[in-house]
Specification:
Keywords: Cell outer membrane, Membrane, Receptor, TonB box, Transmembrane, Transmembrane beta strand, Transport. The protein is mainly β. About 5% of the residues lie in helices and about 60% in strands.
């Protein structure tokens, strides 16, 4: 702070210039976003950074939750995955500078956008109606990330940011540093024809959460009664590092060449203490009995990296425009030799074991449960995992401008080849039967591994275990003797996905009407290689699946007047199954089976959108859209025992295609800067939006007791009926205040039993309230404060009804204070 203030000392006495408010702040961000939305050929929502490179939130996911129709999935209280129009994040796609971003997790296509620090991003847009020149691989929308370019500012620009955050749950303070720079240079005979931009960000955050969960272990036929519960305490250090370097060269007014690079690293160091209680007999709230119990420890370091490199250019040749782009992106996740689980079994059964409160179970049990000497090390599981997802693509686009009967028209056609490879390598070691290895009971007693009582906000917890002590014990053993070949080989896989695409589209302006019509063709070739286990014998599992799609599209935009336009669109999309659903491995054990399904058909959708937009000057707009999606081949988990190759099986778990599903809804948005009101009321800004969504899908499976198929109707997993945002802001030349809220209603997370909805997992509704304030100490130095999760919102999953816990987790609020020094 001292360095920043001294650098700006001469500006202390000066008043801020009026133009600051025109390029910085909430209204400026919103106005730029609305202008891009207005010009777009698609139905699109945009979040734009202001002139000093600031998005309205800390990462890409949390910035996007403010726009119409979007909400986020949170992990440990932080926004990660984005849902569009209430639909699950695996049904959307993410691009950075025009190239697809792969997913670091081994089983998902969804990209966790908190991996991208906000400092690296110039704008975020969500395209909800795809034109034929776009990849057709999203149902809710395509999230497009654009990084900073040197041509985004007229002159030299830099911004330096330093901040500290405080987590109320852990009472820990964490630092963050970031900066960005851009400038233009003259090469050859040109003037300001070369631009360079760079951004860097580093953050280390210490935080934690408290959890109690049952995993849905309720017996509803005899009670309801609970079979087991688990208490968990998480302590996490999360480190983010981001770097972006971008180069733009415009040798003349008809040519452009660019290179976009981005690197992001996300490191999670997590220690999880757990106590697991299994009742001898299922029991209700307030009852007591005997129970088995164990103490468990998980300690792992997980590093995710995203790398993106995009090289492209554009050339105007008379009425023709040629554009070409090559993209490379890779996402990886590495977990080196972590403790997947260390289990300390109770020496004896515990008495007087019970719980109260079915929503947030609170354990009651005899005092010996809280004595570490009551537990002995029973088993240690160690894992090492590497997942890599690589995308390479090249595309070519040709555009010709011409007239049809004096009507401006544009023909565009092109092709794209994409090559994607997803591979997973897992190694597992299981250490058990320690007494046979020569260890005594005294050596294995938990008192030798205890690191004192665990700080747990949901009640009494008791002792926790030291990761270092456990690692020291197994470190002296011959690791190769404990290698779990079954778990290691079954979970290894390689999946290649090759997509070739071509399209043609034409845009024509007929007075106030613009029509965009075209068709896209995509062919997909999938090769999945893995290993299966058939009654103790390993078998190679190699599967191929080829399919193609013709995807027509029609867009219409009609200008009612200079401020109002009507949009309509008919589009078609294809969403491929997740990699967890395509998993080629399998386990066949007697009359039980569990396996992936590489032969799944992709989800296909016909989408219809109709709406109106009205723009009202300074950051002002109101819009309303209705949408309908007709979906085929949606995917869900099911037990296929009793059918096909599994007639003689009691259980055969896999993913299957459903028949049809539908999604429909209404999306409303309103924003306004009240600059016509007298001071100070002219500083107020309102931004509100809400989306109402409904979906219906039919699932069924073979009922072996009845000898026939049975089923029921469900909402699509991940779909919230209501999402909404409300932001109240106020700003002048120096001060900016913002109070924002984000709401999403409950949604189906997982089908627990196809034939019994009582065992479905449902995520409860959530309302998050955040506050932010910033003040210009000088024209270039800004101090800011943020408070997140002021409502102390928790994450709650229930089964059957809200009364019955599957998982409850709370995080507490967090606070941030920082300085930004900028020149623009």
């Amino acid at each position: 702070m001292a360095l920043a203030i001294s650098a700006c000392a001469q500006g202390w006495a000066a008043e801020n210039q009026p133009e600051i408010v025109e390029v910085i702040g909430q209204a400026a961000q919103l106005e730029q976003a609305l202008e891009e939305q207005r010009r777009s050929s698609s139905i699109e929502s945009v979040v734009h950074a202001d002139a000093i490179g600031q998005l309205p939130d800390d990462n890409a996911a949390e910035a996007l939750q403010r726009v119409p129709g979007l909400s986020v999935e949170r992990d440990q209280g932080e926004g990660r995955f984005v849902r569009v129009r209430g639909l699950g994040s695996d049904l959307n796609s993410v691009t950075i500078n025009g190239t697809l971003v792969p997913a670091p997790e081994d089983d998902r296509r969804a990209v966790a956008l908190d991996v991208l620090p906000s400092e690296l991003i110039q704008s975020l847009s969500v395209v909800k109606t795809l034109t034929p020149d776009m990849d057709a691989n999203s149902l809710g929308g395509t999230i497009e990330v654009e990084s900073l370019s040197g041509f985004d500012h007229d002159e030299q620009f830099y911004s330096i940011n330093a901040e500290g955050s405080y987590d109320e749950n852990t009472s820990q303070t964490s630092p963050k540093l970031s900066g960005s720079f851009s400038d233009r240079y003259s090469l050859g005979d040109g003037v300001d024809n070369f631009a360079f931009a760079a951004a860097v960000s580093w953050q280390e955050r210490d935080f934690g959460s408290d959890n109690v969960e049952t995993g849905g272990a309720w017996d509803f036929d005899n009670g309801p009664a609970l079979e087991e519960l688990e208490q968990r305490r998480y302590d996490i250090t999360r480190e983010r590092t981001g770097l972006g370097l971008n180069f733009d060269y415009r040798p003349d007014e008809d040519s452009e060449v660019y290179l976009r690079t981005l690197y992001s690293r996300y490191k999670d160091d997590e220690v999880r203490q757990a106590s697991v209680i299994e009742f001898a007999d299922p029991q209700g709230s307030g009852q007591s009995g005997t129970a088995e119990a164990a103490r468990e420890l998980k300690a792992r370091e997980e590093t995710q990296e995203v790398k993106s490199l995009v090289l492209g250019g554009k050339r105007h040749l008379g009425d023709w425009t040629l554009a070409a782009q090559a993209g490379y992106s890779q996402a990886s996740e590495k977990s080196p030799d972590g403790l997947a689980n260390a289990s300390f079994a109770g020496n004896d059964d515990f008495i007087n074991a019970g719980f109260t409160d079915t929503r947030k179970p609170r354990l009651s049990i005899e005092d010996s449960f809280y004595d570490p000497s009551s537990f002995t090390l029973d088993e240690v599981e160690q894992e090492k995992q590497t997942t890599t997802d690589t995308e390479r693509n090249i595309r070519l686009d040709l555009t010709r401008d011409f007239y049809i009967s004096m009507m401006p028209s544009q023909l565009k056609f092109g092709a794209k080849a994409s090559r994607r490879q997803k591979d997973n390598d897992l190694d597992v070691w299981v250490y058990e039967d320690f007494d046979e290895l020569g260890f005594t009971d005294d050596q294995l007693n938990m008192t030798n591994f205890s690191r004192g009582n665990t700080d747990y906000g949901l009640g009494r917890f008791g002792p926790g275990a030291s990761p270092d002590a456990v690692q020291n014990l197994i470190g002296g053993l011959a690791r190769d003797d404990f290698y779990d070949e079954e778990e290691s080989r079954i979970n290894d896989f390689d999946i290649d996905e090759d997509i070739n695409a071509a399209y043609i589209m034409n845009t024509v302006d007929i007075d106030a009407l613009r029509i965009i019509a075209g068709i896209r063709y995509e062919s997909t070739k999938l090769d999945a290689r893995g290993t299966g286990l058939n009654d103790g014998v390993f078998e190679a599992s190699n599967t191929s699946n080829d399919y193609d799609h013709w995807l027509p599209g029609l867009h219409a935009i009609y200008q009612l007047n200079s401020k109002t336009q009507i949009r309509a669109a008919w589009t078609n999309s294809v969403v491929r199954p997740t990699f967890g659903q395509l998993f080629p491995g399998f386990v066949l054990d007697g009359d039980e089976a569990e396996f992936g399904n590489p032969g799944l058909d992709p989800l296909e959708a016909s989408n219809f959108d109709l709406g109106i937009e009205h723009y009202m000057g300074r950051a002002g707009a109101v819009s309303a859209f209705v949408f309908y999606k007709d979906i085929e081949n949606f995917i869900y988990s099911a037990n296929v025992a009793g059918t096909g190759d599994y007639v003689g099986f009691d259980e055969a778990l896999t993913s299957v295609n459903g028949d049809e599903a539908e999604v429909y809804g209404l999306e409303l948005a309103y924003s306004q800067k009240f600059n016509w009101l007298p001071s100070p009321w002219n500083g107020f800004l309102l931004n509100a939006n809400s989306t109402f969504t409904r979906s219906n899908a039919r699932i069924d499976q073979f009922d072996q007791d009845l000898g026939a198929r049975r089923g029921r109707d469900i909402s699509l997993p991940g779909q919230s009926d209501v999402t909404g945002n409300l932001t109240l802001g106020w700003e002048n030349e120096k001060l900016s205040l913002r109070l924002s809220s984000n709401y999403k209603s409950d949604y189906l997370d997982e089908v627990g039993n196809v034939l019994d909805k009582r065992y479905d997992f449902q995520v409860d509704d959530q309302l998050f309230v955040d506050f932010s304030a910033s003040y210009f100490l000088t024209q270039n130095l800004q101090v800011f404060f943020e408070a997140q999760n002021l409502t102390d919102e928790s994450y709650y999953v229930y089964t059957g009804s809200r009364r019955f816990n599957a998982q409850y987790e709370e995080y507490g609020p967090s606070y941030k204070l920082g300085l930004t020094l900028s020149q623009f």
